Amino acid sequence: MNETPHTLSSARTLWELIARRAGLTPDRPVLLQGDRVLTFGGLRTRSERVAAGLYGMGVRPGTVVAWQLPTRIETVLLSCALARLGAVQSPVIPFYRDREAGFALRASKAEFFAVPGVWRGHDHTEMARRLGAEGIFEAYDSLPDGDPSVLPPPPAEGTSVRWIYWTSGTTSDPKGVLHTDRSLLAGGSCLAHALRLTPDDVGSMAFPYAHIAGPDYTVMLLVHGVPAVLFEHFALPDALAEYRRHGVTVAGGSTAFYSLFLAEQRRHPGRKVIPSLRLLAGGGAPKPPELYHAVVREMGVQLTHGYGMTEVPMITMGDPQDTPENLATTEGRPPEGMEIRIVDGEIRLRGEAVCQGYLDPAQTAAAFDAEGFLRTGDLGRVTDSGHLVLTGRLKDVIIRKGENISAKEIEDLLAAHPAVADAAVIGLPDAERGELVCAVVEQPPAAAGLTLPEVTSFLRARGLAVHKLPERLEVVEALPRNDTLRKVLKHRLRERFGGRPARDR
């Protein structure tokens, strides 16, 4: 069979895709980290040995194995080994602590728990013991090892639930999201086909591998046969040396990552900070149109942004060959097989990449409508060309004197202000108006202080309706963000400013 990216993405299971890619290009690199290089052939061979070691420990098809590990070659090997066994794996973000990690262990009924030992000052092994975890083992520099001849056959179908991913749980307990190999393969294949990679490309993973983006990106590497540089800890400018060393051509992760790269480029005008870079790509948070134009103009690279969530790892993705207008103002188009329906402004989804639901059956029943469409809680519209435009969140609509106001609309406009590095717009309780509009702004270094009249004047000049203008301005040193794709945590801003009287600006 003449394998192509299209035929490879038709694999039934993740392990089948790994094996087929290893048979095609066994000597090509897939993972780069520091001085270490793992090839596609090595990924298959070493994963089978790790699978045999796990089998010797008692891991069987269907066994639930939780792992809380940083972005390392060993983490990918462990995950692939579990896929070879047909175990059910529950990745836990390495920054989670007792509350979130303990909930994930209890809810998933994990029989084994892989941890990195002491990592970045936190003793994960001690935490695991404190939480009463079963089958604790460390998987950082070394992994279980065994003879692959003892292994049972690999899983033959990809429609059983073998993955439990966790939502962020910022205001309540995390939700356990149920995925199959096929749903993850469908999401990763969408990303692979949309980005139009070539054999000369080198990608990068600067986000936690335990995030849903981990298998998404891995599938893309397997489909195209290209490598990626792994970053156990991402920080600029320190990480730039690795991007340059390995000739990374595709970087990104989310909107916050684009902003970080752009800020670093602005410190070195006239010289590309990553000479080999040609494309920034990612998703996970809304992208202001002005950020797209600034990246293209100042970094000299293309930017494609997509829309995904833990429940559906890839919904739409921008195409590098699309028009600047569509790349700046939309989230791209869905792949074949992804159905998007807009109901009362809410985006609803049905397709192979959609999860099977949640660990809690009541949450599953509430999340899907009568026709099997997932309610996303996101607001948007589909253009005549089939592109998806996000307009906000159902819970991120500010209702002022009975009028609905989109926080995203104001945030996109504020992103163009030279004294604004990032902005979050929130609604705060107000006895007279129901809610008032509050703009919380993070400024770039050395920027002149902002006042509320300056902000409202700027927004008026850009045509924002008077009833949408912020009535309050708060300037913060840094917006609170999560540790995965660095999304702004608006609930913390509401908690911080909700009970504080407005100040005269």
UniProtKB/TrEMBL annotation:
Keywords associated with the record: Ligase
Gene3D superfamilies the record matches: 3.30.300.30, N-terminal domain of ligase-like (3.40.50.12780)
Region (Disordered): 316-335
InterPro entries (UniProt xref): AMP-bd_C, AMP-bd_C_sf, AMP-binding_CS, AMP-dep_synth/lig_dom, ANL_N_sf
Domain of life: Bacteria
Residue ranges of domain AMP-dependent synthetase/ligase in the record: 20-359
Gene Ontology MF terms: ligase activity
Domain AMP-binding enzyme C-terminal, first and last residues per copy: 409-482
PROSITE patterns found in the cross-reference section: AMP_BINDING
Annotated family: Belongs to the ATP-dependent AMP-binding enzyme family.
PANTHER family: ACYL-COA SYNTHETASE, MEDIUM-CHAIN ACYL-COA LIGASE ACSF2, MITOCHONDRIAL
Name this polypeptide is given: Cyclohexanecarboxylate-CoA ligase
